[in-house]
Specification:
Blueprint lengths: L3 H18 L4 E4 L6 H12 L9 E4 L1 E3 L10 H13 L6 E2 L8 H14 L5 E4 L21 E4 L2 H7 L12 E4 L2 H5 L3 E6 L5 H9 L17 E5 L8
Parallel strand pairs: 1-2, 1-5, 2-4, 5-8, 8-9
Antiparallel strand pairs: 3-7, 6-7
This protein binds 2-amino-2-deoxy-6-O-phosphono-alpha-D-glucopyranose.
Length: 236
């Protein structure tokens, strides 16, 4: 695609097609800057009256641990702001893990059950980290991993520091759907734009299957779509 706006339009169209076929589809959303044009394009479709997302359900990919619930950078708050509000969806349409729980392993297991009870994820939207991570599955995460607590690499903390006042504020720990959890979604749609993602995209799409590149697990998925702009495609 020529640019990130076009990536957003195309991915929003894929979600729109899904909810036209299945109005109560469960759509997994990702945070970070890459999916923002997708949400903007989907919201535009809703405002234009071409897509009805009124019954769509939304679930969360990952969450920081240790941020107070009222912090604006909890991924729950970001999804509220960037997805639920613009699409006119209520908190009842939303499923997410509890990153503030005292018993985090229990909260992770509960989230796995909640996703299953909800009928499974119909489409999972993904971004990609510059090191090839998906969700917060950092390099060397097992392809068999389930929702669990992870420690961030320093590179990911530095990459995400732009959303915080300082690097010190970026949590070290997160809960994230595992690679096996993500792979249970019926359709995976990964979006990326910009030169900084070119190497990760090339390794994920054309490199060997390797835990060091978590996104290479998409090669095993029967229905995975990768939508990139020209800069992110430049190493393919
Ligand atoms: C975070 C999120 C990922 C996201 C990545 C890339 O680490 N947990 O889901 O894909 O950031 O973010 P960006 O799109 O801003 O480069």
């Amino acid at each position: 695609m020529p640019d990130r706006a076009a990536v957003g339009e195309l991915a929003a169209g894929v979600i729109a097609d899904l909810v036209t076929r299945k109005p109560d589809a469960l759509v997994g959303v990702a945070t970070g800057s890459s999916p923002l044009p997708v949400y903007a394009a989907l919201a535009q479709r809703v405002r234009d009256g071409v897509t009805d997302v009124g019954r769509m359900r939304v679930c969360q990919l990952d969450e920081y641990v240790g941020l107070p619930p009222e912090h604006p950078q909890t991924y729950r708050a970001v999804i509220e702001e960037e997805v639920l509000r613009p699409l006119g969806l209520s908190a009842e349409s939303f499923l997410g893990p509890d990153g503030t729980a005292d018993d985090l392993p229990r909260a992770c297991a509960d989230y796995e059950l909640a996703l299953r009870d909800a009928g499974g994820v119909d489409l999972q939207l993904l971004g990609i980290g510059s090191d090839g991570h998906i969700g917060f599955n950092e390099p060397c995460s097992s392809f068999g991993s389930r929702t669990r607590v992870k420690t961030l690499t320093q590179q990911t903390r530095v990459d995400n520091a732009r959303f915080f006042d300082s690097l010190d504020e970026v949590p070290w720990h997160v809960v994230t759907q595992g690679i096996a959890t993500i792979s249970e979604a019926r359709h995976l749609v990964l979006v990326a734009a910009g030169e900084s993602k070119a190497e990760a995209i090339a390794l994920a799409v054309e490199g060997p299957l390797a835990a060091i590149v978590p996104a290479s697990a998409l090669q095993l998925h029967p229905h995975a779509t990768v939508i990139v702009d020209e800069a992110a495609a430049s190493h393919l």
